[in-house]
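Section 3.1: Structural characterization of target chains.
Under the original work plan, the team committed to producing a structural model for every single-chain target entering the pipeline before any wet-lab resources were allocated. The record below documents one such target. The sequence was received from the expression subgroup and is listed exactly as submitted; it comprises 430 residues.
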Amino acid sequence: MKITIAEVSKHVDQQVTLGCWLANKRSSGKIAFLQLRDGTGFIQGVVVKADVPEETFAQAKSLTQESSMYVTGTVQRDERSPFGYELLVQGIEVLHESVDYPITPKAHGPEFLMDNRHLWLRSKRQHAVMKVRNEIIRATYQFFNENGFSKVDPPILTGSAPEGTTELFATKYFDEDAFLSQSGQLYMEAAAMALGKVFSFGPTFRAEKSKTRRHLIEFWMIEPEMAFYEFEDNLKVQEEYVSFIVQSVLENCKLELNTLGRDVSVLEKITAPFPRITYDEAIKFLHQKGFDDIQWGDDFGAPHETAIAESYDKPVFITHYPTTIKPFYMQPDPNRDDVVLCADLIAPEGYGEIIGGSQRIHDYELLKKRLAEHGLNEEAYKWYLELRQYGSVPHSGFGLGLERTVGWITGVEHVRETIPFPRLLNRLYP
């Protein structure tokens, strides 16, 4: 019976066949231990010399790292294994012998591993990160589907930009200029006017020349937009959504979090509601902490966000940023026109902003004024302005960066490990 490693718990004391690769091995005189992987998980295969033909034991001892094979054996419970099971091997059929696999069990530098990313993905640690990433995506669809949202796919090629064009990749679209999308938000606002509550999940691109551990050139965003939702409604959805995905990972990725050495007690605290402070309060707090370089009207950098987050054991909202440092589409506070109804959600443990969101301007004349103040071409945004001419309503939305969220939940230090094939300032290969 051919099964996957993920299915072995259903076949205890039964003989099964796994299609797998050899991740590693060790042997003594009479027993060979094969670390097997098949994409769904890892399991130890035990080959006992006295229980198999001589050629099978010799074959087990000569197997090379990452050789592919069919392994037949009996599933047994193993309380010593983090996985809980092992395979007592009776037969091996090699499909392809791997020779001189470059990523050996010894330590390698990050540049070498990134050059071999196509192979590094096979390692136990990287496998665990990708499985957590997959669980966050699965839980995202579950959360929004169960809460009445419709999935909408905004275009990747656009003729305008939600936050200006200085950090966009430009391309030619036949005889006119186009850009790779840095956000699907504007299009999602249009979709919300048609479908009420919507979300998108897709790639975004920022031509930002940053080399920090938090930045990628190409990354994935989850972007909900909601008609008839105001500022407070928006924050409530964000904290419920983040709580949901964290609890889903805790429930469904126990083995992966253990592989990564993640302190799950930190994640177990992540339940709504989340604390919040205003931008004004954050500035005052930072001055008390000795950050004299930051003044009212400045945007926060990584050290500032980290200092703020360290005071909390949950993600924290920083709300009501100055109008001058936020995009043109954000709704002003009705009591103060120098700040807007927005919030950044800062993750604990130094992972920085994982969500940016706001109530959007729904007044036609104000939005038109903001476009002019930002030096944006009104004709390019004609369709966006028209959303405020035909049944405009208060509406809000946010964007969650998937890779930063994966980094925070897994405890991985650098976002390059949170996406299968990262695009960095100096890396377009493989």
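The mean pLDDT is 96.
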